[in-house]
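Anyone? Bumping this.
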Amino acid sequence: MTGSEAILKGLEVEGVEVVFGYPGGAVLPLYDAIYDSNLRHVLVRHEQGAAHAADGYARVTGRVGVCIATSGPGATNLVTGIANAYMDSIPVVAITGQVPTTAIGNDAFQEINITGITLPITKHSYLIKQAEEIPHVIREAFYIASTGRKGPVLIDLPKDVQVEAFDLDERDFTRPVKLRGYKPTVKGHALQIKKAATLIEGAKKPVIYAGGGVIASGASKELIELAELIGAPVTTTLMGIGAFPINHLLSLGMVGMHGTKYANYAICDADLILAVGVRFDDRVATDPSQFAKDAKVIHIDIDPAEIGKVIIPDVPIVGDAKNILRALIDRLIDSRFDYSEWFNVVRGWKEAYPLRYNPEDGLKPQYIIEKINELAPDAIITTEVGQNQMWAAQYFKYSEPRTFITSGGLGTMGYGLPAAIGAKVGAPDRTVIDISGDGSFMMKCQEIATAVEGNIPIKVMILNNQYLGMVRQWQELFYDRRYSFTDIHSRTDFVKLAEAFGAVGMRVTKLKEVVPALKRAFEIDEVVVIDFRIEREENVYPMVQAGAPLDEIIEPKTVPENVFPTCEKEALEVE
Amino acid sequence: MVKHTLTVLVENKAGVAARVTGLFTRRGFNIDSINAAITDKPDISRLTIVITSEKEGGERQLEQITKQLNKLIDVIKISDITAYDSIERELVLIKVDATPEQRTEILQIVEIFRARIVDLAAGSMIIEVTGAEDKIAAILTMLADFGIKEVARTGKVAMIRGAKTL
Ligand SMILES: Cc1ncc(C[n+]2csc(CCOP(=O)(O)OP(=O)(O)O)c2C)c(N)n1
Ligand SMILES: [Mg+2]
């Protein structure tokens, strides 16, 4: 068997059904083997798209996503995608071609030290020197990527290894992985769980603060059970959206910089924070010294390095969220809880300070998301980065985990479109929608070709404000409205662009066109791009300034009239 | 300013030292010394890393790095042995200017520090000295008057006293 065949055999044993990739000189032998195999290969149009698609696939399915690129520029094009998966702890295996072992270190054509470049953004990486290493490397790579705190693993595969013939012992693919330096803690420490239970029993104003770790662990059911058992309100991070149903009586929606006012108030006023699978990121603990300053903190996380990194918890519990929540439920099942006083306070906030926008003056992005939600409530939503991402987080009603797919840690513009492709491949029966921005769309719009040619009918909704909107919003609020290079008002025609790729393009400029356009988009089994010309200077609110405490909330102002210079207004009306 | 000595057992594989040191540089720590060599087990190497935490919150940063190091797949075990009673040694080769007239004086210093002369040439000699940090610092100061031409240090190695092992 050759190295390439062994790679494919390994992927098969790991249950991989699809890979996202792009060929090149250093992966010719591997692609030659793929040619004869049953493995589904989705050809992207840029390797970054392959990494994001693998990441989106992983987030939707909970399985390991796989991407392939050639050496040199192919490998470096993967870098942003690998970093994205790393920051959000997504299990991805990236396979890169490399120049032959004999040429490594000689600055050979398309040689790049990709294991070196990706050192700080991979959970682990391998440079394979001999084909006989392949079985255990594949096995380890998938094991490492998908256990503990999940993350990307890179396998660098020299061209000569791909053609090297060797005697394969198939059992090598299924031997248990033995790594003496890697033993993730899964079960929570019993004493810590007991301490946590005592804190919960003694609390008067508890809040559960849940993040991506709950989704990674598959612990949503336990989260709901625990919240209902003790009657504590639940807020999620951006990454935790979907872990707790938004329509639940105890749901507070998202916390943080663009979180709901009531979630932020609840955190500020709480006397106990039960933090599950979160990392007190600066978009949530905007001012760590003020974050839940009167509260005791229980911090559950699978990664010991997260404990005490930002906030020093009163009770740390290292382990898998599902296990630990279950253990907490078991401990607390016979206790009595009455948080009705606290619940009423929180409900009062929820009623007094709902998310709001003015639907009257023009085409509002929030309205579009609400309509998408009405017409496709079971959709999987991916997002780009910027205002579009925040509106998608705020206004769609997520009721299940793995339905909100967004670049949280890295904030990668261009993520949503390839991630939608990966998501649709992973969940072909679901409607998959990329909520996009006009800036972000341009970062990866070539992947529309991937979707069209691969028959992957995703729906791209561009909330087109002709601005790098989120940056403009900061310029408006903190830089005296000096819109330095954020006005991307242009002649680029997204409808024609979509059509050029063979997708269906539509443009919506008026409120009343929204629903018919969406209906049509969801009816047809094709790739659709809708260019929604939204109010240009609509802002994302509520907002907490970076570094400010969570209860210093900037509220919506009504957008002043005539904010558009006349020429731009005309341009909009011409449409 | 607090000096820390970390001993790290790692898989003896290519690139492991880069993984380890990368974690320090990323968080703005400078490595004072690092020693890496194979152990009695051919597949395990031992690193001894000395760093100084000077920044505010340095201790917490270091704890963070230790945890991050532990997460590296190729790191088997890591201990901050600063607080332990331990034997710490470094070996240093020092090439000094030495005219025939200065030799006796240098020899006296060498004896006091229980160092050794390992090479002798017309105008210079190489001194080998082993010891803990303060001893090395002291002999370097003493020899500075003669003119030090070159210094090569192994970096510190360390081991906890008593029966306890890593
Ligand atoms: C690759 C990348 N470059 C730059 C940024 C900085 N950035 C964050 S949001 C944003 C504006 C995004 O514009 P658009 O996609 O139109 O979204 P909007 O905020 O207008 O909804 C920019 C430039 C980023 N997050 N990612
Ligand atoms: Mg925009």
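Late reply, but here is one note on the structure posted above: The first strand of chain A starts at residue 18 and ends at 21.
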